[in-house]
Amino acid sequence: MGLPSERTLILSLIILVMCLCQTTSRSVRDAYISQKHDLWMVQYARVYNNNAEREMRGYIFKKNVEFIESFNSYGHRSYKLAINKFVDRTEDEFKPYVTGHKDTYGLRSHVSRLFKYERVNEVPDSMDWREKGAVTEVKNQGQCGKLFNIITFFGSCWAFSTIAAVEGITKIKTGKLISLSEQQLVDCNRNDLSEGCKGGSKENSFDYIVKNGINTENGYPYQATNKTCIAAFEAAWAATITGYETVPANNETLLLNAVSQQPVSVSIDANSNEFKYYSNGVFTGPCGTNLTHDVTIVGYGTYNGMKYWLVKNSWSADWGMNGYIMMQRDVNAPEGLCGIAMQATFPTA
Ligand SMILES: *[C@@H]1O[C@H](CO)[C@@H](O)[C@H](O)[C@H]1NC(C)=O
Ligand SMILES: *[C@@H]1O[C@H](CO)[C@@H](O)[C@H](O)[C@H]1NC(C)=O
Ligand SMILES: *[C@@H]1O[C@H](CO)[C@@H](O)[C@H](O)[C@H]1NC(C)=O
C-alpha cells in the first residue's frame, strides 16, 4: 500500500471544502434568520418567557420565514405573502383565528323564503362599500378562545362577520356609520348555536339582533374573551335589523347581485399558510371548502385583469392589505374560491 494517489487527495480536499462551505452557509443562514427574528420581535413587541421559548419560537419562525420567502421568490404569482404577526405561532395558537364558524346556513328555521336580489337593475363593474362610508375600521378578534393560557379553540369570527354586515346595512338605511358591539354577541347571544369564544353562528346572531338590538362598540367594548352578559349594556339599542336572508348557495352571480347592494357575511376555508401570511394581490388559494372562518364581503372589482371579492377580515389592520384580502371571484367552481359562495347571508333593515 502506497501513499494515497494524487487524485484521491484532490477529491478529499474538494469534499472537505464543500463540507466547510456548507456548514458556513448554514450558520450564515441561521444567523440571518436569528437576526431577522430579533428585529421582528421588536417590531411586534414580542417578549418570550425564557430561552427555551425563544428556541421553540425560533424554530417555528425559521420554518415559516423559509416558507414565505420561498413562496415570494417564484414569479408569476398574483399575490404575495408577508412575514406578519403570525410567524412565530404554533398551529394551536392560530386556531382561534380560523375556527369560530358554526354551520347554520341550511337549518330549516333559518332558511329565508325569498331572495330579494334575484334581479338587480344595475350591477356596477366594481363596488367598494368603504368608499360609500359603510364600513368601519378593521377590528381584531384576537385569541378569543384562549382561556388561562390553555387554548380551547374556536373563536369569535362569527360576531365580527355579523357586525360588519349590520354596520353596512345600518349606514345604507340610516345614513349613519356606527361601529357596533361584537362583545354583546359574544356575551349575550348564548345558546346551542352561539357559544361565545367557543364559536358561533352568523345567522343566529342576526336573529338575536332582530330581537335585542345591538349596542355600539364603545358602549359594549370588545374584550377578546367571553364574559357574563351585562344587561344594562345589552339594553342600549344603537341599531337594529328586521331579519336576514340567505343568498342561494353556490352562485357567484347572485352573490354579486347581493354585494352590489350591501355588505354580505360569508364563511370560508381559511385553513392554509398562504391565507395566514397573505400580504397583497389577488388570493387564488390553495384552499378547500372546509368552512371554519366567517368574514364579510364589502366590495368587488378587477385587479390586473383578475376579478376579486374585497373581503374584510377581523385580524386587525396589520394583516393582509390593511386588514383586507382580495379573493379571486368567478372561479371555475360553483362554490367559489374557498367556499365563499356556499353560505352567504345578509341582514335586512
Ligand atoms: C365562555 O363561554 C363558554 C361557552 O358558554 C363557557 O364554557 C366558558 O366557561 C366561558 N368562559 C368564560 C371565561 O366565561
Ligand atoms: C345562478 O342563478 C341564476 C339566477 O337564478 C341562474 O340563471 C344561473 O344559472 C345560476 N348559475 C349557476 C352556476 O347555478
Ligand atoms: C376543517 O378545518 C378544521 C380547522 O382547521 C380542522 O380541525 C378540521 O379537521 C378540518 N376538517 C376537514 C374535513 O378537513
Produce the secondary structure layout.
Layout: H1 6-43, H2 51-73, E1 79-81, H3 91-98, E2 127-128, E3 146-147, E4 150-151, H4 157-174, H5 182-188, H6 202-212, H7 231-234, E5 243-246, H8 252-259, E6 264-268, H9 273-276, E7 278-283, E8 293-303, E9 306-312, E10 324-328, E11 345-348
Parallel strand pairs: 7-10
Antiparallel strand pairs: 1-7, 2-8, 3-4, 5-11, 6-8, 8-9, 9-10
Helix pairs in contact: 1-2, 4-5, 4-6
Bound molecules: 2-acetamido-2-deoxy-beta-D-glucopyranose (3 copies).
The site of one 2-acetamido-2-deoxy-beta-D-glucopyranose has 8 residues, from loops.
Total individual domains: 2
Supply Rg: 24 Å
CATH class of the largest domain: Alpha Beta
**Tally of alpha and pi helices:** 9
Shape: globular
Q: What ligand molecules are bound, each kind once? A: 2-acetamido-2-deoxy-beta-D-glucopyranose
The CATH homologous superfamily of the largest domain is named Cysteine proteinases
**In terms of structural class, how would the helical and strand content be classed?**
alpha+beta
Counting DSSP E segments of at least 2 residues, the number of strands comes to 11
